[in-house]
Specification:
The structure is a single chain. The protein is an all-alpha fold. It has one domain. It is 85% helix and 0% strand. It has 2 helices and no strands. Helix 1 packs antiparallel against helix 2. The relative contact order is 0.10.
Length: 127
């Protein structure tokens, strides 16, 4: 029976060495990619946490402002039912509207500043 030429074929040492080096280089490249991907994920998670904190801050302010506005409305309603005449009703209404416009303007400014700050904080690199 003749010997199979493939059974006696040996891979030269240089070729084996090159193949081992290629595998090692590929492993290092993949490890570097995975490290970079993990760092990017950590950065994204950090920014998401900052963004969530900003959204919570804006939400808390908005809820606080809503509570203040409701309290002002009920206070106004109580003053209206105690008014002695139409002239006092008109004065109370004018004062209430003026106060609410000032309050709403300030609240909008604060909410805008908080939202802007949250957006800026979420986009800033962590130091």
């Amino acid at each position: 029976m003749a010997k199979d030429p493939m059974s006696t074929f040996e891979i030269p040492a240089e070729m084996r060495h090159m193949a081992e080096q290629s595998v090692e280089q590929a492993k290092k490249a993949v490890d570097g990619f995975m490290t970079a991907a993990q760092q990017a994920l950590g950065t994204i998670e950090g920014r998401a946490a900052v963004a969530q904190a900003g959204v919570k801050d804006v939400s808390r302010k908005a809820m606080s402002f809503a509570e203040q506005n409701l309290a002002s409305s009920f206070d106004f309603a109580q003053k209206l039912v105690r008014a002695k005449d139409a002239q006092e009703v008109m004065r109370l209404q004018t004062d209430f509207i003026r106060g609410q416009m000032e309050s709403l303007s300030q609240q909008a400014k604060e909410l805008g500043e908080s939202a802007t700050r949250a957006a800026v904080d979420a986009t800033q690199p962590k130091t």
